[in-house]
Queue: 3 jobs
Job 1
Amino acid sequence: MPAFSRERLRTVVDAPAFQRTVIAVITLNGVTLGLETTADPAGRYSTAFLLVDHSITAIFVVEMLLRICGKGRAFFRDPWNWFDLIVVGAALVPASQSLSILRLFRFLRVLRLVSVIPSMRRVVSALFTAIPGLASILVLQLLLLYVSAVIGERLYHEVAPQHFGNLGKSLFTMFTVLTVENWPQIAEDVMATEPMAWIFFAGFIVVSAFFVLNLLIGVIVSAMEQEVHSIRWKEDQALELTQHIAVMNEIRALNEKIDRLAAALPVPVEVVDVVDGRAGPANHARRD
């Protein structure tokens, strides 16, 4: 494609109006997919739903073609573009019995809102950035859960076998306590025989549900701050580059003016280059 045509297409697909149109189509797709799950509308208007689905698929295909033609190879360097391409391409799979499971990917088209809206894209990118820190905290949480389950099984397997009869039951019980759901009932069953068991449950909840989960929140917030700062840093770098180019152009224009003034003098003069600071004789013709 000629560079001029590609530039015009890139301007079109990057325009706010084009992005808003895509968001509106994705929202409409989400509404129709939700209505299809209800029995009456899907039975009465199945043909209309099918027509709308095909129309939305055609719009998405045209959008993908415009973006590929407008951005060229740069389109395939963005992972979000690959996500959009896979989601849209899955909707084109023939509805055969062996490939019917792939047709379910059309429900993922609603997730394209994440790739279209920049703020949501930043949130997801921050979550991916936080994965190393999240993995470490998750391992710490699993170790705490395992150790607590072993201790609970050793201490209360006789007084509450329904909760701590073996390691598997103990793990499930401690996970239930971790979610802070129905843990008072579990504690009461144990405390009926062991009155001091509340110390074990309260300590586990404080350490796991409060401290460790707050660490998870802190890692995610830190990753989001880094993502926002990186975007601002890129914007600042682009602005500094633009300002640097503008300053250098002004300096070159000043050099050209100095050269013209030096050429108009009747005798040679020392001319200092503003850009590199080197001085040299100006060999200009003497006036008659």
Job 2
Amino acid sequence: MATENITKSQTSLHQSEDFSFPTLPPFPNDIPTAPLVRLSLPSLRTSPEESDRFFTASKELGFFYLDLRNDPHGERLLSQSSRFFDFAPTFYDLGREELSKYDYKNVGSYMGYKGFGSGVVDEKGNLDRNEFYNIPKDDFLGISDKPFAHPNLLYQNQDLVKSYIHDSHKLINFLLSLLNSHLQLPEGTLQSLHRVDQPSGDQIRIIKSPPQPPSDQRTALGKHTDFGSLTILFNRLSGLQILPPPSLAPPGKEPEWTYVKPLPGHCIINLGDAMTKFSGGLLRSNIHRVVSPPGQQAKETRYSLVYFSRPEDKVVLKRLEGGIIPKGKDGEDGEAMNSKEWIKLQALRLRRVGVESEEERRRLWQESGRGN
């Protein structure tokens, strides 16, 4: 499939393909959408030109669509994601009281359940409007020394959980191999930092975002960059927005928050902070947030399926040496943290929410660095 940008001025490009989800309200056709490149997984396997476009997207925006159709591995991921979307309502029917038994933030972990309204999302101290469950790779692949308990429903569906972890990691590994080649690093360098059988913060996240009151629709998840390496996202309703860098904004205009339209048969891939650190800033981890979906989609409950790939726990997040990675100046990179501590810090820093006042929540937001 040809690579293209999705923008308001290019809506005609879509007329030959059906980019709607039959059981859901359509994305409004009069709302601009983000300039994500569309890439094809089958083409990435064989075409140097497609691989070049992938590397350009990884440097310029750090977000892109990946068409998984007509590829055996991609088709498996599409099938598994559909099963998770069927599973999600049943899972959340367990109820917040039951799921809250699996919230492990008080023991210093971001795995398990995060309840609705338990994290700060903006400089005003507002709280989030979603709930999610982080399913740890290490627990379900038997890697954890002390695995957490999880709802029985997950264990009853552990074949799906395990197969999705393995197939997601396989896709991540393929993309890392392409980045490794473009960065001209020694063969296997990036892949060796992300082995599936080693302890890491890799996880599946199932997100539920209920409709917001029509008179009070605001941010559901605050602006942030992802903390790990690569993220695979499946969603069917919009709500994800990105803030493009100035280089991708229309001439003479400041960057604006812009919706990313979900496309059937595709996932959305984005790079995280670890890839920016490893590449000395060559690769981009772009800022994004989640708001209420546009138009009639706002009346629907929004489910999302995410796979977060993180470097192995012991990997130190610092600039790699070699290839085309620019050399840093003395002291430029500061004191590096290992992946386990870095991810834990980033994931929990805005979830210290309980008796805090609105003023305290605003302070937490500013200290997180997201207000900059």
Job 3
Amino acid sequence: MKDKTTISDTASSRPVPAARGGRPRRRKLTFDRVTFFLAFLGLPVAIFVIFVLYPFAQAIFWAMTNWRGFSPDYDFIGLDNFVKMFQDDVFLKALRNVALLAAFVPLVTLTLALGVAVAITLGGPSKGPVRGIKGASFYRIVSFFPYVVPAIIVGLIWAQMYDPNAGLVNGILSGLGLDGFKEFAWLGEQATAMPALMFVIVWGLVGFYAVLFIAAIKGVPAELYEAARIDGAGRFRMTISVTLPAIRDSVQTAYIYLGIAALDAFVYVQAMLPGGGPNNSTLTISQRLFNVAFAKQQFGLATAMGVVLAVVTLVFAALVFAVNRLTGGGESEGRKEARGLKARRAVAKGGAQ
């Protein structure tokens, strides 16, 4: 009788699902929960709708009008602006240029930034704990300095450095005995205008992302590097097999931000090549948009170009997310490796005892 009572009491103490199918009963909406959701969910969503979604919807509307910008009068013309835009050879050239920038600038910038970050954080002695090189703080400051300078100043400085007659670039090359570059117009030749522009953008942004990757690498568990070193992995192998998988989410985020900056690139291009370069070789969509709006006063058409640029940016971000997901990346893999390593060590210690 005693045993039956104990079993019954134990069974009655088990949690019984309140709803069918084992679903838990919904929690009541208390004042604390309501205020929490209003403060941390309702307010951000409201701000996002008011300042992001509504202006974008308004831009789509104005893109379907012939509004001239300085008059309240306009006519609704449907998709005529989009048809006209994709029949414009200059706009199509600008679209190809921004696609070229989005393809090369993030790739080159992140490759250099990762190289600098890995050298600073993992380039120390090959014996003992894994640590960075001496004077790492100095190198971080030096690499970050170009990002502190405003982009417009960077563009103006490099425009003077590329000057064919008195520029520092041609002066250095001529001093090295390369007389062919004595009066070479880097920004005046169609073959070199775009590479010269890309170099300036990379130079201005690589330091920031190097510092970003340094912070990400410092968050990687030291046990992973110690295990890799015990297994005989060198610095390059540790970078490929440990560092990159562990900071992959940071690389993805940086790639998206860099892609957005490259798709725009208005400040750099406007400072160095306000006319779009020789034969529009460096013209960007934002430059074309600016000229159509303020020089030709076709704000409806310019707004349509802005809508297309926004869509291209969203597609770029979606592609980066898709590639990262398809290749199985993420910081979770680094965490899994760390947990697996700790588990193996715990098992080894237990066996030794």
